[in-house]
Design brief:
Blueprint lengths: L1 H34 L1 H8 L9 H29 L1 H21 L6 H25 L1 H6 L1 H26 L5 H21 L13 H5 L5 H32 L3 H25 L5 H21 L3 H16 L1 H12 L5 H29 L6 H24 L2
Helix pairs in contact: 1-5, 1-7, 2-7, 2-10, 3-4, 3-5, 3-15, 4-5, 4-8, 5-15, 7-11, 7-14, 10-11, 10-13, 10-15, 10-16, 11-13, 12-13, 12-16
Length: 402
């Protein structure tokens, strides 16, 4: 009887943990949904019409990045005082309010008002991310690579959902109405997280932040952080500027360019699912090389194309090429860091997001001077940098035996 009771309790506890981890992972859907906003809303706001507006678009990406970094710095004390659920609900609630505010200050309202909205949106997304990395701790301990891969795939699905929402409603509703619809998503999750409870990790179950940060004394940890920085930059340079690039260079309508962007997300997500399935059965070096060739070919095709078909094929190659990088890195990080510290991993992820937003911000400033054709320059250069960093990580692991 006692044995049966113990088994029942263990089963219920495991089920609760799995359910909690699933609910936490669903938050990455909101994170991707929020961070895809600028790339899909810029054409709707008319930022594709002239190059003079590209600096303003770059400022939006920069403001979003500042909000994320600021939130990451202040969120940990809030987690300790108020709990994980409070931070998750607060992040979603602030994001909901930010989207409603952006609906009120859409053009022709002065651009500076929108900067404040993106700063608040970044702060909301930053709080959400900090809470998520605390909430998934049990899942990471059980399956580190699997949890990271699931989070990355769900994150991409959120970005795809935002793209399809704006593309599907582009001619049916006004931009403020679209933003109000988008605000419902984080609003729903704010209510959901307010009703859930995510217990703090038990004392002694994780290393201290100081112990975790000691890993950055090794070149390998620095290389991992730099790799994610540049890879996120590659992915979000495409996500942030592809619609404007296609509208200006290829002549697609804004809604048509958004559908091509949706195709990019479809291939990125599908490619990650395929990569996760085949990783145990293929040589990683061969997969890496084929991915790099695919991404480079896709970028060059986008530079040269002058029609929708060529743009669609190029985007498919870029999405498929970028897809396997994250699963490769997730598997390597899972082996290299078998323990888990939420603050440490949120720091790496925030650094990666900074790269993901710094790249499109830089593109906005560069495109205002040299034209929208430079949009494909950063992903192309970044792809070579990622390949070099992966090779450096491989060499470092061989030398150190790690």
């Amino acid at each position: 009887m006692n044995t049966i009771g113990t088994v029942d309790i263990a089963t219920k506890t495991a089920g609760t943990r799995l359910s909690g981890n699933a609910g936490a992972l669903s938050g990455f859907l909101v994170s991707g949904f929020l961070l895809a906003l600028i790339g899909v809303i810029l054409p709707a706001w008319g930022y594709h019409r002239n190059e003079a507006s590209f600096v303003g678009a770059g400022n939006f990406f920069l403001s979003l990045a500042v909000g994320i970094v600021a939130a990451a710095r202040i969120a940990l004390p809030i987690v300790r005082r108020r709990g994980v659920s409070f931070v998750l609900a607060s992040g979603c609630g602030l994001s909901c309010v930010a989207l409603l505010y952006l609906a009120l200050v859409s053009p022709p309202v002065a651009e500076w008002w929108r900067l404040a909205g993106f700063l608040a949106l970044g702060a909301g997304a930053g709080l959400l991310n900090v809470g998520l990395f605390h909430a998934i701790s049990n899942g990471y301990e059980a399956d580190s690579a699997g949890t990271m891969n699931k989070g990355g795939i769900i994150y991409g699905m959120g970005s795809l959902a935002a793209t399809l929402l704006v593309a599907g409603t582009y001619y049916a509703y006004t931009v403020p109405s679209i933003l109000v619809f988008m605000a419902l998503v984080p609003g729903f999750f704010a209510g959901m997280y307010a009703k859930r409870h995510y217990p703090a990790p038990a004392e002694g179950s994780h290393p201290t932040m100081r112990q975790a940060l000691q890993d950055f004394r090794s070149p390998g940890a620095v290389l991992f952080a730099l790799l994610l920085f540049f890879q996120f930059g590659n992915e979000w340079a495409i996500a942030g500027w592809l619609p404007i690039f296609l509208t200006r260079r290829v002549g697609l309508s804004p809604s048509g360019s958004l559908m091509v962007l949706a195709l990019y997300w479809v291939f990125l997500i599908t490619g990650r699912l395929v990569a996760v399935a085949i990783l145990p059965r293929v040589r990683h070096g061969r997969l890496l090389m084929s991915s790099m060739v695919s991404a480079i070919f896709g970028c060059l095709m986008l530079v040269k194309t002058d029609n929708a078909f060529g743009a669609s094929i190029g985007v498919c190659f870029v999405g498929a090429g970028f897809a396997s990088i994250y699963p490769l890195v997730a598997e390597a990080i899972g082996r290299r860091f078998p323990y888990y510290h939420p603050g440490f991993f949120n720091g790496i992820f925030s650094f990666a997001l900074l790269g993901g937003l710094a790249a499109p911000a830089t593109l906005g400033y560069a495109a205002s001077f040299w034209g929208v054709g430079v949009v494909m320059g950063i992903p192309l250069i970044g792809t070579f940098l990622v390949m070099a960093l992966l090779l450096a990580i491989w060499l470092e692991s061989k030398v150190t035996g790690r």
